[in-house]
TrEMBL record:
GO cellular component: nucleus
Protein name, entry field: SET domain-containing protein
Domain SET: 108-349
Pfam families attached to this UniProt entry: SET
The species this protein was found in: Bodo saltans (Flagellated protozoan)
Gene3D superfamilies reported in the protein's UniProt record: 1.10.220.160, 6.10.140.2220, SET domain (2.170.270.10)
Length: 380
């Protein structure tokens, strides 16, 4: 983000931040009754904060109700030209629920904390006592949400579908399950609010087609990330809350390296389509939407043919040469003796580990991730 060192610019930024927060409060309080002018005001605040890609979403929302000259949108498009083509957005996490959803799964002699050697890595898992090979590090647990990345898998748990498939009770819905339990679980977890929404499901099928037909790892990973984002949004709509109010979402940090033109193009178009079909502009802002996607890019796992949101595993940092691996039951164990004070690492993408250094770098780069594990630093 461009920086400004003058006191006048600092005051302008502070005023814009205050306006943005005030607009947030008004929109949260009034919901669907929010006057469109409030979105115009928040858009103006985003522009002053040098975030025209966020401003465009609010101007679009306002324009659905009132007719404007279009000068605000033109100004945003011009401002986009002056921004760097590579920006970074960081989204914070809260530890309020980790003692409930993460800590009970750890083995003995293990704790989470921020790395003293590399604070930029955020939270990590460290040994508080010497661990022996095969000691349990993390008990098995199921992901909060997951999205199957190929045909023939259960829409809820991503297991291979049996000969007898349990379809959704809505005959026009595309979801299929491996059991009645999975079908019931999906309805209460994420599917209940969007099952009959043909617009939402049309977007979902379109993204799945884009992912399946992608010609590059980067495009495939973007589409997969969007699909899991849709599932998180569906869960939040079912719970009638914003995504970051859900414990599994607020527990994870997010980092997104992005081209603002892409955000103002493809991503904004996806948000606008979803908002139109689901009517969530007053509950889920474009900024919130990007925050969910950023957390997926930073924390999701490819496991059992799916892209998974798995909070306990996300507490560990990635390494291409991890000292902890999962056994056939999903329990993570130490793969070597580990000294007290050492960080415990796992591989987010085990299928990449056999690849040479450059091939891994390209694959990880398509996920906006630069690995700094000893193996990657050494180049092997």
């Amino acid at each position: 983000m461009a920086s400004c060192v003058t006191s006048g610019c600092g005051a302008k930024f502070a005023s814009a931040n205050a306006l943005k927060r005030q607009c947030h409060h008004v929109i949260n309080a009034l919901g669907p009754q929010t006057p469109p002018e409030i979105f115009m005001y928040r858009g103006n605040a985003y522009r002053d904060l040098q975030q025209p890609y966020l401003a465009l979403a609010d101007y679009n929302t306002a324009n659905r109700v009132i007719k404007t000259s279009g000068q605000h949108e033109v100004a945003c498009r011009e401002a986009l030209k002056g921004l760097p083509t590579r920006l970074t957005a960081n989204y914070p996490a809260a530890d309020t629920h980790l003692h409930l959803i993460v800590d009970p799964l750890f083995g003995k002699g293990i704790a989470r904390r921020t790395s003293a050697k590399n604070p930029d890595m955020g939270r990590g898992i460290f040994a508080t006592a010497d661990l022996k090979q095969d000691d349990i590090v993390l008990q098995t647990s199921t992901p909060w949400l997951q999205y199957p990345l190929r045909e023939g898998l259960c829409s809820n748990c991503s297991k291979k579908l049996p000969p007898r498939v349990f379809g959704c009770s809505n005959e026009t819905c595309h979801e299929e399950y491996c059991s009645r339990d999975c079908r019931s679980h999906a309805l209460t977890l994420y599917h209940g609010k969007v099952c009959g929404n043909e617009g939402f499901q049309g977007i979902e099928l379109d993204l799945f087609s884009q992912m399946s037909n992608a010609t590059s790892p980067a495009r495939r990973n973007v589409a997969a990330g969007y699909l899991l984002t849709l599932r998180v949004l569906a869960a939040s709509l079912l719970n009638r809350t914003v995504p970051t109010a859900i414990a599994e979402v607020r527990s994870l940090t997010g980092k997104l390296v992005f081209d603002p033109n892409d955000v103002a193009g493809e991503m904004l178009d996806l948000y606008d389509r979803l908002a139109r079909f689901c009517g969530f502009v007053t509950s889920i802002s474009f900024e919130e939407f990007i925050g969910v996607y950023a957390r997926i890019r930073s924390n999701s796992f490819q496991m059992n043919g799916s892209l998974a949101w798995h909070v306990p595993r996300s507490m560990f940092n990635h390494s291409c040469d991890p000292n902890c691996v999962a056994d056939h039951t999903g329990v993570f164990r130490a793969s070597q003796n580990i000294k007290a004070g050492d960080e415990l690492t796992i591989s987010y993408y085990p299928h990449l580990n056999p690849l040479p250094s450059e091939a891994r770098r390209i694959e990880l780069q398509s996920r906006d991730f630069t690995c700094l594990c000893p193996r990657c630093i050494a180049g092997f």
